[in-house]
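Throughout our pipeline, every protein is held as a single compact record rather than as scattered files. The record that follows is passed on verbatim for readers who wish to inspect the format:
___
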Amino acid sequence: MKLKGKFRKRKNLVICPICHVELSANDVNINGLVVCPVCGAVIEIIKSEGQKIPIVHNVETKRPQPLFRLHTIATHFSIGLLPVAMLAQIWLFFARASGELLGNLDLLLPMCFLFLSIVLIGGILTFATGFVDWKRKYRGRNYEIITRKIRWSIVLFILLNFAIFLFWIELFGWSFLTQIFALGVIAKIGHLGGFLVFGK
C-alpha cells in the first residue's frame, strides 16, 4: 500500500520542458496553469491517453528578485554555525572527561549554549526571509516543493528547541544526538531549495 501511494504521488509529477524541474500537478491554479518557480514558464498541463503533458504558453519575464539575498545569507549562517556548535560540544565532552584539563567548563558551557541559541535565531531568520521571498518572487503561489520546505522547517524548529532544552538540563549526549538529526533535516531543506535555484 505504501509503495502504491508513492507511485501515485510520482505519477502526479510533470517535468518543466524548459528547465526540467519537477512540478506537481497539484500546483495548477484555477485557470489550469502553473508558473515554473525556476524559469518562469507558464505551463498548461493536459492529459492525453492517460499521460500528463506540459505545454508552455508563455514565460513570466518580470520576476522580482530576492531583497539583498538575505535568505541565502541567513541559510548559510545557520548551516555553518551548527557544526561549530557541535564541535564545541565535543570539546566540552573531553574537558569534562579530563577534569577541566582540556578546557574551562565555566567558559565552554555558556559558549555552547550561545552557539545553539544563535543557530535557532538564524533558523528563524532563514524561515522569515524565505517566506518573504516566496510572497515576493514566487507571488505566494502554492508550490508543493515550498510546502514541503515549510513542513521540514517546522520539524527543524522542534528539533533545535528540543536540543537546546536538553542541553539546558545537561543531557548533553541526547542534545548532541538531536542536533545530528537537525543536521539531516537541514540537508533535506537545502536539497529542496536547490531545486528552486538550479532546477533539476
In short: DSSP finds five helices and five strands in the chain. Residues 70-198 form one domain. Residues 1-8 have pLDDT under 50 and may be disordered. The radius of gyration is 21 Å.
